[in-house]
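Propose amino acids for all 362 sites.
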């Protein structure tokens, strides 16, 4: 069974006001001094922090890892006078503060306001692959299904104190990077690496780490890294993303081994599907992953389950995936939770405080 790991980027906020706080350096110092290992890292801005789970084959173990790491990171944040919130953008107005470092300074000088505004939090799922060749065969075949993962995770309806009309406004902000978003079919590992090298050679990107495809080969681990999702409010949702991502990788690898070619979906159509997923979340029509016409979320997610059902069952994840999908469609994702709290007349500060509570799984 393939292993799977999750990276979550989290916002550091004031527990009373909900405003983002520049406390990343203090949180990192606290985590570094802790006797128990917590894989916490800084990001571009000082108001956010990231952790990564260990690779897990069992999703129950992964769920425990996510809850433990959220709790540990929140404990370190408390020591720095902050709390963590699993929201993909700050509902309240914020002036992002860039962390120190040569790479971050280069990015700021190169990209100006595009980099300055990137106080966004995503969820990245790593799924193990046997080789770069298998990984690229997977990348070529999972392309049409990635917008569904974005819709499931949508958790950023507010931006700078305003309702955006999007379930995932993070996705719209993130796609302002010139290397971000849907990608074309590569065909081979050799072609994938050639394209990445050509992108870096332009001088527009600092390094390979700035190749921000919706899914890519990890440049650190033998994994496919699926990067399309918002960070998820409920700690159960990244476990669902991990189950579906692993099943997508299993299914794609099997198709490649059986000689099934990638679906010839133009990248331009995938960009529209991604935009629709960011706009709708789970609250209105998405583009169906097979025929790319509007369809209700339930229909598109049923198509995803049909596509990966055999792999989910083989991994022992099918019942969990069905239960979590039903829960999300009924209760709503993070975007719906935030909007419902705001519609009750609560201020955005109270919305953030509710997100802090739910981040911990309360």
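Proposal:
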């Amino acid at each position: 069974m393939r292993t799977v790991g999750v990276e979550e980027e989290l916002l550091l906020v004031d527990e009373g006001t909900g405003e983002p706080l520049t406390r990343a350096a203090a949180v990192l110092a606290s985590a570094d001094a802790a006797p128990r290992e917590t894989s916490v890292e800084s990001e571009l801005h000082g108001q956010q922090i990231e952790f990564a789970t260990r690779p897990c084959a069992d999703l129950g173990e992964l769920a425990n890892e996510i809850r433990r790491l959220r709790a540990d990171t929140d404990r370190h944040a408390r020591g720095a006078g902050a709390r963590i919130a699993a929201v993909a953008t700050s509902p309240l107005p914020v002036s992002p503060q860039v962390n120190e470092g040569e790479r971050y300074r280069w990015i700021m000088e190169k990209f100006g306001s595009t980099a300055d505004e990137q106080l966004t939090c995503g969820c990245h799922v790593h799924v193990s692959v046997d080789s770069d060749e298998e990984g690229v065969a997977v990348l070529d075949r999972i392309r049409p299904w990635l917008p569904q993962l974005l819709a499931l995770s949508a958790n950023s309806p507010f931006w700078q104190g305003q309702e955006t009309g999007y379930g995932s406004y993070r996705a719209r902000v993130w796609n302002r990077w010139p290397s971000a978003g849907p990608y074309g079919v590569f065909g081979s590992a050799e072609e994938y690496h050639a394209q990445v090298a050509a992108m870096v050679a332009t001088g527009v990107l600092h390094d390979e780490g700035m190749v921000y495809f919706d899914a890519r080969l990890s440049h650190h681990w033998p994994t496919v890294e699926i990067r399309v999702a918002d960070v998820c409010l409920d700690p159960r949702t990244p476990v669902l993303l991990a189950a579906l991502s692993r099943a997508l990788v299993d299914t794609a690898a099997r198709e490649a081994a059986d000689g099934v070619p990638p679906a010839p979906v133009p990248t331009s159509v995938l960009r529209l599907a991604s935009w629709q997923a960011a706009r709708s979340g789970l609250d209105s029509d998405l583009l169906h992953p097979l025929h790319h016409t509007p369809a209700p979320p339930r229909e598109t997610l049923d198509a995803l389950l049909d596509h990966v059902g055999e792999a989910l069952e083989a991994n022992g994840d099918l019942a969990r995936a069905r239960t979590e999908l039903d829960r999300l469609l009924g209760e709503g994702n993070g975007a719906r939770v935030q909007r419902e709290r705001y519609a009750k007349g609560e201020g955005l500060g109270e919305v953030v405080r509710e997100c802090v509570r739910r981040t911990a799984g309360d």
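The longest strand covers residues 4-13. The radius of gyration is 19 Å.
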